[in-house]
Structure formats: structure tokens, C-alpha cells
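Table S5 (text form). Sequence records supplied for joint modeling of the two-component complex.
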Amino acid sequence: MISNPFMSPAAAPASVPELDEDQLLHVSLGPQHPSTHGVFRMNVVLDGETVVSLKPVFGYLHRNHEKIAEGVTFLSSMPFTDRLDYICPLTNNWAYAQAVEKLAGIEVPERAEYMRVITAELTRLINHTAFVGFFLGDMGAWGTALMYAFREREKILDLFEELTGARMMSNFMRFGGCRNDLPAGWAAKASTLVNEFPRFLDELENLIIGNEVLIARTQNVGALPKEALINGGITGPMLRAAGVAYDIRKAEPYGIYDRFKFRIPLGTTGDCYDRMMIRFLELRESLAILRQALDQLPEGQFINPKSKIRNFKAPVGEAYARIEGPKGELGFYLISDGSTNPFRYRIRPPSFINLTLLEDMCLGLDLADVVIILGSVDIVLGEVDR
Amino acid sequence: MRVPALIALVLGSFPSLGLAATDKPPLLTGESLPRLPQRLVEMALEALKAPDWLVSLASFATAAGTVVAVFLSAFALLSLIERKTLARAQNRLGPNRAGIFGILQPVADGIKMLTKEDIVPTKAEWFLHLVAPVMIVIPSILALGVIPYGREWLPVPLELGLVFFFATGTMTEVAVFIAGWASGSKFPMLGAMRAISQMISYELPLIISALSVVMLSGTLSLADIVAAQSGYHLGFIPAWNILTPWGFVAGIIFLIAANAESNRCPFDLPEGESEIVAGHMTEYSGFKYALFFMGEYLGLFAISGLGITLFLGGWQAPLPGLGFVPSWFWFFGKLAAIIFFFLWVRTTFPRVRVDQLMRFAWLCLIPIALLTLPVAALWHFTANPDGSNGVLSWLLCSAILAVPFIIITVIFNRRLAPSLRTYHYAE
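The corresponding C-alpha cell record, covering 813 residues in total, follows.
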């Protein structure tokens, strides 16, 4: 009854007993459940506490985002993209702006590119620290790690508030640049934060990565082989944890990422522990990028003066632009018929596609493992359901 | 037989209940303060020329009422202290709106719980659904009755106090299972099954580690166990069981098993919030839900009190020359320390998985707990005539305990829990 070709030998049960249908427990985990990260639902069939089948049910947070975007102008969709992955709005903004720029062939001034890199990497810091907190929360550590992570997140959100006027719903990017310039002294404040951040990281790593309970809970849990992940279209830290060196910042450098020196941390097994550790290591690489970007930040224009804000029309054509979002490959696919609205607007959300292999990862494991595997995928339901 | 006579017969079967305390110390000293209500009731009834059985009954009721009152206020206080402690560990402030430092928060919580709607699911067995939370509170209160809190403060001096304690403690498991089963829902059912397996598994190390104390004290009476730990070695080291090789190991096992027995993190699987919502409490609301919390906290007090009695010398002072402080002060000081330890663990550890939990109990705790029994016997037989133990006895007992401990925790554990990893980078 259990068929999971991808399951690692360590996690696979020695023999699959014949299951008596009467003895199985059908449980609906969610949509109201403390650790489904929103309104996600899993229809789980349990034998005791072992997962026999798991069917994800999406769509409780469906907002018709893609269809709405076809009915409004290009720029009107920008605030909507904030609501996709609400933990990291600025990378969403960037991916969308990039798609439109590609479609309309708009040049981006250098200072704006630097601002985009800085905000995107700060967003990555937020996402990965918050991930560690939520992950430990899924494991039952009751918010302690989350509160430590959120203390640092607050500092970054303060920077965002000063820059964009909003802590989370930033609506900051424009086609051809950013909405406004960096406020006076902002870069210095960001530098201070970047210099102080490693101390917090050391503290968090000290507290977390050597914990025996955490190691016992996460190692050899939810691992899939590389081939399965690649076939499933998995991207982001989940893929790199399995040892595949695929980072769009390196594979297809967008913006000005080819100017910075940074490395891609790689795991070996791809289990939940590796997924967490890869994020820890990526945080350090993001800090390296931030340091370089803040040092090199040039003077100049923050938006291309030729780009039109009002009555913006993209030429007929199509474009797909993708960035390495904190959760994986975030892509926007646009078709324009020459009018003010996109003809087709489509998002490739990393959370949603990373979630498709959830059943393969969970089969044969414990109910408690399902929760941390879901946590290790790092989803935001705003992006999954759109 | 008339009812009063029956009550008198039942009460008379307790050796030294209420009035039977023959020597009467002064009414208002620090030491006898907790017994003041009981003594006042006795004096008032005697002045009214009430029959003996009535005096005895009233005295008993007042003694029980004192314990309940003390621990219900402690429960209210702990619910605040727990939130404050967790908040402190998590860079938060905790409740601070109701009264100064949030001191009125328990009152507000109580009012909220009382005024909430009491929901009984349609598929629930309504009677069992009602009985379970009550059943969970009563054993905890009963267990609190047999613990000696001070030199003169022992509500029910049972000869078989320890047996009574564990017997009542077992009732909690039944109540938890009833709660899970009667709710007619799946998360409570899962929680109840987890709770049953966990509590039965952890009751074994709990009882075995307590047995070693019983062996050396030669009694099941908790008051006598405290008395057996009186005195000081070398004039200043208290003769508590925790300060012996076998007592140290048994005490730690007791602490861990007690943590699991009261379903607290990292062993809070039965109510594992992130997995099965709230376990057996999922379908409860209002005051029934509050009763579960009350039962949990009272059980925590009871089991910590038992641990103090067995291993930490009960109400004995930690240093000689501190006799002027009331003995119950020391008991509650130790209780506060142990409870704080539980809170500290709760705020720092993730939860273990079911199989790891079971493996830990059966492959680690129970073997070591069993080993403390022969070591305790060895300790007894290698003692000097005056009751103290020489260096050789210390070394021998420690070595016998240390070797299997190292084998189990280091070698065995290394195979089970893989260690830290190294990561490489791609340019």
C-alpha cells in the first residue's frame, strides 16, 4: 500500500505489512491547525501514527490574484505582489518589476540595481531567520527561537519602514528602478545592522544546531534523492540541501549579482537538518553580498527617468523573468497585447512547487515528522494559493 | 450503624489524624502557622462541647482545606509565573496589563474561563466528557494530601504514603484516556493514545527510582523518609539522598520521569500543540479546559513535592543552624527551585518524537533505574557502623553506576543520534 520509490533507506520501513482498512485513521490536518503555516490542509491516513497516505488540499487562500492582474494596469499589480509571500515582499516586487522591464526593455540605473540587491538580501535575512524560528516552533520549542529571530527581524523591518513607508507591504519597486531614493543615513544604518548580524547568528547557531533533540528529530527525516527533487521542479534551499548547486544568482545572474563574490552552500543528504543548516549558511553569504553592495553603492538615479509611470504600455510580446527568491525560484510570466494591462499574468511560486513532493517525503514516517517536513519546505500560503 | 459512628470509625483508622496529635506546640509560631486554621477550628468546637467525631471530622476537613487553598493559590500564581518566566526567556514582557506586573492576570483568566461557553461536541459521550476533567483534578489533590510540608504540617500521615501517592497518580492516566476517548474526535484520540503509552512507560522509572529510597529508609511513610534524611555529614553536608551516588542517579531519573509524567516539554507529546492541536484537551472549552490545567499544575506540584521528599530531604534545612526558619519555608523554597527548572526546560527544548520518547524510557531510564537498586544495597552494606560511608564505598558505588551510564548514553546514543555535519560550498 505504501509506495514511495524516493524514500531514503534509513527512513523506509523494513517490511510493509498488509493494512486493514478498518484500522486506518483518516485525519484532516488543517485548514485550522496550529502548524500548517496558514490555511493549508492535509488529508492524512494514519496507521497508528504512521502516515500511509497524504493528500495536500490547496486553495483556501485563493484570491484570484493572476486573473485580477489581467484586468488592471501593469503597475497596479505591484502592491498585490507584496501579498504573495508576505514574509519577503521586496523580492516579489523585484521579480515582477524585472519581468515587466524585460517585456518593455527598460534599463535600470546602477544605483537602483544596488538598492534592489540590498533590499532583496535583507529580505533573505528576514526569511531565513524567521524560518529557523518557525521550524523550531513546529518542533515544539514553543516560540523561544522564533522570538530571538523576530527580535532581529524587527530591526530589518525598521529599516524597511524608513525606506518604503511600510514594514511588510512595501510596494517599493517600479519599472526601471525603485519608488524613492534611500533616505539620508539609511546606508550607514544598514551597514551597522549587517555588521552586528553575525553576532546574533553565532548566538542562534549556538543555541540551536547542536541540540540533541533537534538533531534526533531532523536528521534523516524527509530526505529525497536529487533526481526526485530535480524532476519535481524543486528549487531554492531545499534543492541545495540535497547537494545540487543551483542558484539563479549564479546560474543565470540577474541584476548585478555577477559583480559580487559569494558561495553556494551545499548539503549532502537533503533531510530536514540539512535544509535548516543550508539556510544558516546562506545567511552568512547574504551578509557577504550585503557588505559588498553597501560598500560599492554608487550615487546616481534611483529610477530610469525615461520609464513611464502613468499610461504605461508594454510592447506586444511575452517575457519570463525569474529571481532566486529566499524560498526558491520566483518567476513571473507576462504576455502583453500592447495595451495597458497584461494579457496573461502568471506566477511561478516556489512555495507551491516545493510543496508538490510533500507526500513523497512524508510516507512511512510519523505524524510528528509531517509537521517538521512541512516546516522545512518553508511555505507561505499567500504564495501557494495566490 | 449510624453515620457519625461510621465516620468516626473511618477517621479512627488513621493513626494520628487531627486531634490525635498529642503534643500541642504554641499556637502562633512560624512552624505551626499552616496548622493555625485547623487548631482554631478544633478549639472552637471543643469550647462548644461538640462530640469527638465532629471535632475530628472538622479538623480533618480544615487540614485538607488548607492544603487545597495553598495549592490552588500556588496554581494561580504559577500560571502567571510560568508566563512571565517564558516571556523573560523569549525577549518578551509577558502579561503586564492586569494589575502591577500582571499580578491580577490569574483572576482575569479565571473570570474568562468561567464565563466562556461550555461546548460539548455532538459526537462526544457527554457524561464522560464531563467526568474526565474532574477526574484529573481529584487524584492530584489527593496526592498532595500525603506529602509532609513541614515539621508539623502533614495533612494525612499515612503509613503507606508512597503507595497511596502512586495509586492516585495512576488515576490521572485513566482520566486522560477518558477525556480523549469521550471527546469523539480524532486529535483527542491520538493524544490519549500517546498519553497512555507515555505515562505507563515513564511510571516505571519513576517508581523504580523511588524504590531505592524505600529500600534504604526501610519505610513507605513519607514522614519517616524525610526523618531518615535528617542530620549532616561532616557537620555541614546535609544527609539528603541526592548527595549519595545512587540517590543522585535515582534523583535525576525521577526528575526526568516526573517531567514526562506531568506531560511537560520536551515530553509534552500528549498535548503536542504543533502536531495534534491540544491532544486530549482539544474538544474542551471554558472551565473544563481550565480544570485540565489545574490538574496538570497540581500534579506538577505533587510530583515535585514527592521528589523533594524522597531525594532533597523534604523540609530539612540545607545547612545546620538554620533551625529558626520554619521548616515549610524550606519545602516551598525547594519546590520553587524544581518548578523553575521545569519552566526552564520547557522554554529551551524542542519536543521529542514518540519512538524516541519510548526508546529513551525503556532503553535508557529503566535499565539505569534498575541498577540503582543493587547499588543502593551495596551502599547500605558498605556503610560504616555510624551510618556514614567511606571513600571506598563512594568510589565503588559511583563506578558501578558510571560504567553503564557511559555505555548507554555515549556509545549507544551516538549510534542513534547522528552528530553534527560539515558542509561544502560551490563557487
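Note: Confidence is low (pLDDT under 50) at residues 12-22 of chain B.
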